[in-house]
Structure prediction request, 350 residues.
Amino acid sequence: MTFSADSQAGHRRVAAVPIELVCPAGSLPALKAAVDAGADAVYLGFRDATNARNFAGLNFDAASMTAGLRYAQERGCKVFVTLNTYPQARAVQVWQDAVDQAAARGVDAIILADPGLMEYAARRHPQLRLHLSVQGSATNYEAIELYRRHFGVARAVLPRVLSIVQVEQVLDKTAVEIEIFGFGSLCVMVEGRCALSSYVTGEAPNTHGVCSPAKAVRWIETEQGRESRLNGVLIDRYAPGESAGYPTLCKGRFDVEGERNVYAIEEPTSLNTLALLPELLRIGVRAIKVEGRQRSPAYVAQVAAVWRAAIDDCVRNPARYAPRPEWVAALDRVAEGQQHTLGAYHRPWK
Prediction:
């Protein structure tokens, strides 16, 4: 699938690879699972607050980073390092050191959100490819072009708030590659601006790299059922035998205006854009991201394998492409809440 550089769109580029599959790597086993299942690129983070998945047991130290880079790159898989939290005034050096470490290790790109850190990366490592993180909350071409002009950003990950029509409008007016989320858990979709976790725990994704830090999570068995609490705040209560999700404020069940134990903000569900693949190819989306660095290697392997097969099938013959029932069933089994949605991509009113 190619696009003319002098088409009406004006900015769309001919892609050497039709569309990249970008998979999560929360650990070295997950990285290997993604690579072996056919990922074109993996994204990962250091074991600290410089990335938005700063959970205990996740991410990479120096040894695992070296091993992961070698494993991926020897197999033709790119490695993107995620540095998408916002540096704290008292510890800016931590984030700058992370940029330097990533550059020194020869990663294929770093994913950033903070403009100050972008300026540092562009100035200190002009050869280093920069991607704008979804945490940067850039939802229009003017914002994306600003990052390109000032910092040379090569790719932007769009927040999950745009319809397909709006994604195409962005693509029409920017030379920056566009990456979108294709599969994975949804939150309240205000990437880069969510402070719900901080309201209860004092820590949030954009500052400490973690939503609902594990140290604040408690599970309590009661006569009414199993309760999940976050820093003492009751998030949910589960009936016997009911599946329990990780407690986050946005997906908790609360008593609201006379209704008891209801999803007040958002019901757990996963985004799944398998059905949109021909459209994503047509409009020139450069990469599809799978969410889930906190998920297991088995999850990563299963999701990556489905998406690898679907992308290859669609590229071979987009006119005859349709998601196979076995693909949908495989993704439904690992979807949050065992249900999926097209999310904002398919909202005609937007």
Summary: Residues 109 and 128 are 6 Å apart (CA to CA). The chain has two domains: 20-186+269-345, 205-263. The longest helix spans residues 297-316.
